[in-house]
Amino acid sequence: MQLALYKYDTCGYCRWVMQTISELGVTDTIELRDVLREPRFREELFEARGRGTVPVLRIEDESGEVQWMGESRDIVAWLKERFAG
Ligand SMILES: N[C@@H](CCC(=O)N[C@@H](CS)C(=O)NCC(=O)O)C(=O)O
After folding, report:
1. In this predicted structure, what is the pLDDT of residue 85?
2. Which fold has domain 2-83?
3. Per DSSP, what are the bridge partners of residue 27?
4. What's the 36 CA to ligand 1 centre distance in angstroms?
5. pLDDT-based confidence at 64, cuts 50/70/90?
6. SS3 for the chain, per residue?
7. Which tens digits make up the pLDDT trace of 20-36?
8. Measuring from each residue's beta carbon to the nearest atom of ligand 1, which residues come in under 6 Å?
9. Which of 34, 54, 78 to mutate for ligand 1's pocket (most ligand atoms within 8 Å of CB)?
10. Do 6 and 33 form a contact (C-beta atoms < 8 A)?
11. Rounded to whole angstroms, how far apart are CA atoms 14 and 18?
């Protein structure tokens, strides 16, 4: 599974997700894609979702299927479900 978080640093919702990633100790597991520093990441978001709202977690499973998860609350819940304990 490949995980990537689309975000930018001054976005409070993104910071919440990044704080969760840090607390769960999975910073090495999730690639951070900053949409302000790297315009192509913002373009990828628009292509996938039709809007550039962040945070979004891109989840690619072993078969190559990709899921784009928006909503910080859903992302935090998913991360905790997968990585806590
Ligand atoms: N309900 C969303 C709100 C996300 C949100 O408002 N993100 C802001 C930045 S903090 C954003 O991306 N605004 C620009 C846009 O929507 O294009 C969540 O909790 O993830």
Report:
1. 76
2. Glutaredoxin (3.40.30)
3. none
4. 13
5. very high
6. CEEEEEECCCCHHHHHHHHHHHHHCCCCCEEEEECCCCHHHHHHHHHHHCCCCCCEEEEECCCCCEEEEECHHHHHHHHHHHHCC
7. 999 999 999 999 999 99
8. 11-13, 51-55, 71-73
9. 54
10. yes
11. 6
- Give the start-to-end residue ranges of the domains of the chain: 2-83
Q: Which residue has the tokens 């977690």?
A: 57
The 10 Å CB-count burial string (b at 16+, else e) for 14-44 is: beebbebbeebeeeeebebbebeeeeebbeb
- Bridge partners, 66 (sequence order): 60
